[in-house]
Specification:
The model has no long low-confidence stretch (mean pLDDT 89). The chain has a single domain, classed as ABC transporter involved in vitamin B12 uptake, BtuC (Orthogonal Bundle). The protein is 72% helix and 0% strand. The protein has 306 residues and is mostly helical.
């Protein structure tokens, strides 16, 4: 019975990395910008956060460093695609490739580094409840923060004027510009906010989830987070559920191994990506449903003078 509680706990932790990154990318796409550089931003944030943690022994400074790294790279991406009108897809891919190489270069001296452990995040009283305490109430605060972030985004996007403006920029930037809204600045702020959240996700991976730095440790999670936004049809609550689903797929394979079911390591490595392909293939069978929910101007450049 305890093994299932541990499985549920590991699913929530694994899903948190995907959830925070995907929610950041959702903010980008709601403003009409597609950032394929999530993988690179998360890797740079992972090494920035880990290095900050190693030198300060403060995990929260590690998360702050990760968020800053993600925001800086996203700001660079934003300037290129929003003001210089470079191709969003090509620029995002270039950012992703840059992040892979740069993080590997910077992280050479941190491969064997150790970080202080022994932190306990059990919630008082609730953490002592049999089974449920292990499964739900002994997580890092960011696990609960991801849930609050999804709820906050639902409120922001659909209950506030600022959220309405952000969505209008993603639907029709020309109309928003005609009404006097600074479309480019709004898009840049959305891109930076999304990059900061990708940075937090990357830092969470190295600082808390694994507690170490390994080259290319994000291992495709940035691409899965990108797929999640489509899988969730750009709805924050669905992003959260999808993140836990993909996190569960990853952890289920390890659970099967632990209970004696032999699973080749190659299968373990491919399961999250196989699940991503299957889900995207299923939802692509109804393209009309995707079009209804997809921001109309996603991936399209905006020229104020035109």
């Amino acid at each position: 019975m305890d093994s299932y509680a541990l499985l549920l706990a590991s699913m929530l932790s694994a899903g948190t990395v995907l959830a925070i990154a995907a929610l950041g990318l959702l903010i980008n796409e709601k403003a009409g910008i597609v950032n394929l550089g999530a993988e690179g931003m998360m890797l740079c944030a992972a090494i920035a956060g880990f290095a900050a943690y190693v030198h300060t022994h403060n995990p929260w400074l590690g998360f702050l460093a990760g968020a800053a790294a993600g925001a800086v790279l996203a700001a660079l991406f934003g300037v290129l695609v929003i003001w210089l009108n470079t191709n969003q897809y090509a620029t995002g891919l270039a950012l992703s490739l840059f992040g892979v190489g740069f993080s590997a270069f910077v992280g050479i001296n941190y491969v064997q580094a150790k970080v202080p452990g022994g932190f306990s995040y059990a919630l008082p009283v609730l953490g002592d409840i049999p089974w449920l305490g292990v499964a739900l109430f002994r997580h890092h605060p960011l696990v609960y923060g991801a849930v609050l972030l999804a709820i906050g985004l639902v409120w922001f996007l659909y209950r506030t004027r600022a959220g309405l403006v952000l969505r209008s920029v993603g639907e029709s930037p020309e109309s928003a510009h005609a009404l006097g809204y600074p479309v480019r600045r709004i898009r840049l702020m959305a891109v930076v906010a999304g990059g900061a959240l990708c940075g937090v996700a990357g830092a969470f991976l190295s600082v808390s989830y694994t507690g170490l730095w390994v080259e290319n440790m994000v291992a495709g999670r940035g691409w899965i987070a990108l797929a999640l936004t489509t899988f969730a049809t750009w709805r924050p609550a669905r992003v959260l559920l999808g993140a836990y689903l993909f996190g569960g797929v990853t952890q289920l394979a390890f659970h099967l191994q632990s209970v004696g079911v032999h699973v080749p390591s190659q299968v373990l490595a491919m399961m999250p990506y196989l699940a991503t392909i299957v889900v995207l293939a299923l939802i692509s069978r109804n393209p009309a449903f995707i079009r209804v929910n997809m921001p109309a101007s996603i991936g399209k450049p905006f020229y104020p003078g035109s």
